[in-house]
Amino acid sequence: MGKNYSSGFKAAGIASGLKKNGGKDLGMIFSEVPASVAGIFTTNKVQASSVILARKRIQSGTCQAIIVNSGNANCCTGSKGMQDTLSMSGFASAELEIPDEHVLVASTGVIGEPIPLDKIKSAVPDLIHELKPDGIADLAESIMTTDTVPKVVTATGKIGGKSYAVTGVAKGSGMIRPNMATMLCFVWTDIKISPAVLQEALLASADKSFNRITIDGDTSTNDMAIIMANGLSDAVVNGASQVESFRAVLDDVLIKLARMIVKDGEGATKMVEITVKGAESDADAIKVAETVAHSNLVKTAFFGEDANWGRIIAAAGRAGVPVLPDSIDIFFDDVQMVKDSMGCGKAVEAETTRILKKPEFGIVIDLNMGEGEASVVTCDFSIDYVKINADYRT
To answer: What's the CATH code, domain 9-263?
Structure first.
């Protein structure tokens, strides 16, 4: 799971009775001192009360604790839902003896059902009692819904010869689309950094990671990524070179977490990186990559291990950006399948089919028009995805 090296942070995860299977469903991250905080949130117009509250509270730039539950999204539950979110915050702040406005709440699970607040209230003292520096494994388990594995990454860096750590935990398996969709991510670091610079770093890293993945093209109501920095190490970010150094470590953590989410996609058997190059701009390349990565026809072909490049080129052609219809090249790993928008023959197709049997591979689409380039990581679309989502509430 990886050790938590960040000074002054503790985590915990316990079972409070929210999940029908009795699994861990209530977690917490706590900083021993007030920390700088930054966050990004779902782009869905329908947002859970936890997202609305967190958006408001991070504007202060200070946070000391996050309480998170799985098994219930507490979304579309009216004014009572917001009051329940505020109550969750209040339970945590009272027990921790910290200001209520320094507590964030996150929730994930089924939409539209009232949250069993009495269960959370009863469990909070035990949750706080379980807080410990190496509690990240329990936290990671407590935020899982349809995830099959916990997702934790830790990385270390140095600034001015002083060491610091960045630790991240995430959940996400379905309802994943770029622009902060259907996932929770909590990151903490003992570096000293201002909230404004931390926000810029998080946005930049998310654009390279969480905004470059897709599982099913759906966007949830509860997504958020929060980062806390408590400054308890001797490493200080106070200049452009230090910012760049810190961003490199944060990129490493978030990109690894993002790929873990795709690899654990609901029913997924393959992880595929779609790279588009030769576009007129990076923005055009992103549009083409996302269109191909979202295509159910492309994703089902991946599952069937069918080298159906026609679905890929058709998706590229409907992305809404300029393409030269007779000048597209497509590669599966290092094998060229398409040259100037025409197939390269049955022998190559057989070689490509062998690549499709691998659990991880890449596809490169070269539009041969310019210098624009971008990548999106996706997965296949399997029969199990349908079964998991058909039975999600039952």
So the answer is: 3.60.70.12
Residue ranges per structural domain of the chain: 9-263, 271-390
Instruction: Supply angle C-alpha 31, 18, 30, rounded to 5.
Output: 0
d(CA 119, CA 15): 10
Which CATH fold would you assign to the domain 271-390? Answer: Ubiquitin-like (UB roll) (3.10.20)
Judge whether 152 and 6 are in contact, CB under 8 Å: no
What percent of the chain shows pLDDT beyond 70? 92
In this predicted model, what pLDDT tens digit does every residue of 272-292 receive, in sequence order?
999 999 999 999 999 999 999
> Which two structure tokens, joined as six digits, stand for 187?
């990151």
Identify the CA nearest to 181 among candidates 172, 190, 194.
Answer: 172
Instruction: Give me the torsion for CA of 307, 308, 309, 310, rounded to 10°.
Output: 170
CA 325 to chain centroid:
34
- Res 394 pLDDT > 60: no
**Which residues have C-beta within 8 Å of that of residue 310, sequence separation ≥ 6?**
none
Average confidence (pLDDT) over 188-210? 95
pLDDT of residue 165: 96
The pTM of the full predicted model, rounded to 2 decimals, is: 0.85
Mean pLDDT score, 145-154: 88
- Amino acid identity, position 202: L
Task: Name the β-bridge partners of 155.
Answer: 166
Distance CA 372, CA 280 (A): 5
Question: Out of 182, 189, 214, 219, which one is annotated catalytic?
Answer: 182
Spell out the SS3 assignment of 100-143: HHHEEEEEECCCCCCCCHHHHHHHHHHHHHCCECCCHHHHHHHC
Q: Is there a catalytic annotation at residue 77?
A: no
